[in-house]
Amino acid sequence: MPEAPHVVVVGGGVSGLTAAHRLAGLGTAVTVLEAAGTPGGKLHASAVAGVPVDAGAESVLARRPEALELFAELGLSDRIVHPGRGAAAVYSRGRIRPLPKGQLMGVPGSLRELARSGVLTWTGTLRAGLDLVWPRTPVRGDVPVGAYVGVRMGPQVVDRLVEPLLGGVYAGRADRLSLDSTLPQIAPMARRDRSLMRAVHTSLRGRGSAPTAAGPVFASLRGGVATLTSTLAERLGGNVRTGTRARSLERLPRGWRVRLDDGGALDCDGVLLACPAPEAARLLADHAPAAAEGLRGVEYAGMALVTFAFPASAFPEPLTGTGFLVPAGEGLTIKAATYSTNKWPWLAEELADANPGDDLVVVRCSIGRAGDGSLERSDEELVSAALADLATVTGRNAPPVQTRLTRWNAGLPQYAVGHADRVERVRSAVHGLPGLGVCGAAYGGVGIPACIADAGREAAHLAGTLRTHSHTHRGGDADGPNRQGVNP
Question: Which end of the chain is more exposed for a tag (fewer CB within 10 A), N or C?
Answer without folding.
Answer: N
